[in-house]
Amino acid sequence: MHKKGCSEEELFSFLSSVKENDRAYNKVLSSMCTIPHPVAVRAHNMFIETNLGDPGLFMGTASIEEMLVERLGTLLHHKKACGYSTSGGTESNIQALRIARKLGNSKCPNVVVPESAHFSFDKAADILAMEIRTVPSDDKFRMDAEKIEEKIDKNTVCLVGVAGTTEYGVVDPIEALSDIASDRDIFLHVDAAFGGLVLPFVPHTSKFDFELAGVSSLSVDPHKMGMSTIPAGCLLVRDPSYFHSTEVDTPYLTVQKECTLCGTRPGASVAGALAVLDFLGEEGMAKIVDSCMENTRRIIKGMENAGYPVATMPEVNVASFCCDETPKGWQVSRTRLGHMRTVCMPHVTKDTIDEFLTAIGEM
Ligand code: 0PR
């Protein structure tokens, strides 16, 4: 720290010069986040000082969190789902595994995840000292339903499926997982961090949510396709009693117990998340998702015309291609298998895709 403070003008000219180094979302096809919706920014600024870690002080903001949980629960076929707003998919996945581990009550617990699972499960398993058992993918990059049971034993406390995988945008066989989870009475967590705010607005997609009786918990992130400000994730559980297992006493707060992982938690991005859902409604969300899916079909067709077929047909707006080139000036990413990965988020317009396809050499 400098001994004396600087002028506000000097400070902000410094900050804006540093911000110029940010890539922001220009020619960015690799991000699962996007430019927040203007109503999210407005609501975020309105709730800037709020702390959900002390809900007795911020009862209005806490009621917004409850409304968000209710909106998302209803969307995902469980109006009475219980939940709270996390910092994103990573925290939701850690907490889900933590609950499953406690409920499972095993001395050497393991969790069965698809090969395609997000790396947040590696973090969760490490923190919770759980063994990770990986189910290989089928030829469509989904968890191979035939190979799930062979990984399960008496110490399996959790099964995980992904709805909208990070790398290929596919949905694991959640119905099969749900049947296994129900039959064997194992906790099933669905990571719908990305797909949870896409799949409900796309016709004829695979089932993945609480409509399936075996699904115990779900991650869904408003800071991805929910177009809220960062950080805004959400963990939903089927049965409110699940949260008893993560509760601690909080004697000097305005509430007596807390089941969350973080203590101090932003209310601003939670207000942002609710603002987007209420402002757009189901119709508005469907319109935006539809345009992202249209752009995904456009990029798949264009890449094919250029001689780069899609690795597998996605169910959400993530498409990965058999293509080793990266056009200059564009930000794409690579899957673990080396496919070129693109995400058609709301900031990726039809013109962006056309420009990208011209750069890649579509005929
Ligand atoms: N589960 C799934 C299926 C995800 O795709 C992700 C993130 C997570 C969990 C973890 O979510 P948080 O990062 O919110 O904790 N997937 C993206 C990824 O890791 C996140 C991302 C977003 C990466 C924007 C880059 C970026 O520019 O690829």
Architecture overview:
This protein has 363 residues and is α/β, with parallel strands linked by helices. The chain folds into two domains: 22-36 and 282-361, Alpha-Beta Complex (Aspartate Aminotransferase, domain 1), CATH 3.90.1150; 38-277, Aspartate Aminotransferase, domain 2 (3-Layer(aba) Sandwich). It has helices at 8-19, 38-46, 59-75, 89-104, 120-127, 174-184, 268-305, 350-360, and strands spanning 82-86, 110-114, 131-135, 156-162, 187-191, 217-220, 233-237, 248-249, 257-258, 318-321, 333-334, 340-343. Helix 3 (59-75) packs parallel to helix 7, helix 4 packs across helix 5 (120-127) and helix 7 crosses helix 8. The longest helix has 38 residues, at 268-305. The protein is globular, with a radius of gyration of 21 Å. The chain binds ligand 0PR. Pathway: Cofactor biosynthesis; methanofuran biosynthesis; Cofactor biosynthesis; coenzyme A biosynthesis. It holds the Pfam family Pyridoxal_deC.
Summarize the structure.
With 363 residues, the chain is an alpha/beta fold. It has eight helices and twelve strands.
- The CATH class of the largest domain turns out to be Alpha Beta
How many H/I helices? 8
Query: How many strand elements?
Result: 12
* SSE arrangement, N to C: HHHEHEHEEHEEEEEHEEEH
Rg result: 21 Å
Full CATH superfamily name of the largest domain:
Type I PLP-dependent aspartate aminotransferase-like (Major domain)
The CATH topology of the largest domain: Aspartate Aminotransferase, domain 2
What keywords describe this structure?
single chain; 363 residues; alpha/beta; Aspartate Aminotransferase, domain 1; Aspartate Aminotransferase, domain 2; seven-stranded mixed β-sheet; 14% strand; globular; binds ligand 0PR
